[in-house]
């Protein structure tokens, strides 16, 4: 990630994420409802 301060990010939750091998990972297969993802906040 970049060197921005922590308050410049927003946490969103997604059920699916793309793994490093390019496959989709479903959070429910890992016992979660969703994956937390940190994204830059809009200004």
Could you please describe the fold and organization of this structure?
The two termini are 18 Å apart. 0% of the residues lie in helices and 42% in strands. A two-stranded antiparallel sheet has the order 1-4. The protein has a two-stranded antiparallel ribbon with strand order 2-3. A hairpin with a 5-residue loop joins strand 2 (16-18) and strand 3 (24-26). It is mainly β and 43 residues long.
Percent helix range: under 10%
**What is the radius of gyration computed over CA atoms, rounded to a whole number of angstroms?**
13 Å
**Largest sheet report:** 2 strands, antiparallel
Q: What is the residue-mean pLDDT, rounded to a whole number? A: 89
What's the order of the H and E elements?
EEEE
Strand content: 35-45%
Shape: elongated
**Roughly how many Å apart are the termini?**
18 Å
Low-confidence stretches: none
Number of helices: 0
What structural category do the secondary elements indicate? mainly beta
Strand order of the largest sheet: 1-4
**Count of DSSP strands:** 4
């Amino acid at each position: 990630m970049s060197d921005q301060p922590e308050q410049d990010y927003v946490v969103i939750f997604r059920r699916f994420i793309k793994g490093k091998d390019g496959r989709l990972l479903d959070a429910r297969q890992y016992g979660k409802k969703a994956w937390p993802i940190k994204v830059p906040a809009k200004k």
